[in-house]
Specification:
2 helices, flat, mainly alpha
Amino acid sequence: MSELEELVRRRMNEEYAKGSSAEKIAQVIREIINNFDGSGARSK
């Protein structure tokens, strides 16, 4: 599994555990993907 997949899966589980709505989880995932540069380093 790629680093991005692992990060997305972990954050989805965290948000689900907090009882976040599907919309909130989708927003978090979009932010992760938009901030991931693919080189192995996350952009700030």
